[in-house]
């Protein structure tokens, strides 16, 4: 049986962390968060101001080393929030930093979003090595950053998880 890992970034315990745990539980995967070396400020407005600057210039903040060894896994699901229609900066760093380690893996991406239609999935998939087998990703929409107000029909989310 293939070993699976869910890797995600979430500012605090938001919709992205909820979805990452839901996916991991459903498919029997290990789970690990992406942790920036310099945490985003606890104040929402200040954190989002920094995030907007970073996303605007495709900045890659330093992230802490992973505890999991990516080479030990056959399938990796990568996700996080959508920031201004793009992937979050910590997710970008993870993808760029681990490009070689993702080669030959089966990979799928997810994002949580509560704004306009994003391009984050396409951006994430464009950073994957060509040797990856890519399972189409999923955008899970929420009313706001709180995981309690999911707009994407649960049946769609469950059907996508079953493809992993």
TrEMBL record:
<dbReference type="GO" id="GO:0010181">
    <property type="term" value="F:FMN binding"/>
</dbReference>
<dbReference type="InterPro" id="IPR008254">
    <property type="entry name" value="Flavodoxin/NO_synth"/>
</dbReference>
<dbReference type="Pfam" id="PF12682">
    <property type="entry name" value="Flavodoxin_4"/>
</dbReference>
<protein>
    <recommendedName>
        <fullName>Flavodoxin-like domain-containing protein</fullName>
    </recommendedName>
</protein>
<dbReference type="InterPro" id="IPR029039">
    <property type="entry name" value="Flavoprotein-like_sf"/>
</dbReference>
<feature type="domain" description="Flavodoxin-like">
    <location>
        <begin position="4"/>
        <end position="142"/>
    </location>
</feature>
């Amino acid at each position: 049986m293939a070993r699976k890992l869910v890797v995600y970034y979430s500012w605090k315990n938001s919709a992205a962390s909820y979805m990452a745990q839901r996916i991991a539980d459903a498919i029997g995967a290990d789970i690990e968060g992406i942790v920036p070396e310099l945490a985003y400020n606890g104040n929402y407005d200040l954190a989002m101001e920094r995030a907007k600057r970073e996303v605007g210039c495709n900045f890659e903040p330093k992230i802490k080393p992973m505890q999991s060894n990516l080479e030990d896994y056959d399938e990796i699901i990568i996700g996080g929030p959508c920031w201004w229609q793009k992937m979050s900066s910590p997710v970008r760093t993870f993808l760029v930093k681990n490009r070689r380690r993702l080669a030959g893996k089966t990979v799928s991406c997810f994002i949580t979003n509560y704004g306009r239609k994003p391009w984050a999935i396409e951006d994430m998939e464009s950073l994957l090595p060509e040797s990856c087998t890519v399972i189409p990703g999923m955008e899970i929409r929420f009313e706001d950053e709180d995981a309690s107000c999911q707009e994407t029909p649960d049946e769609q989310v469950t059907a996508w998880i079953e493809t992993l």
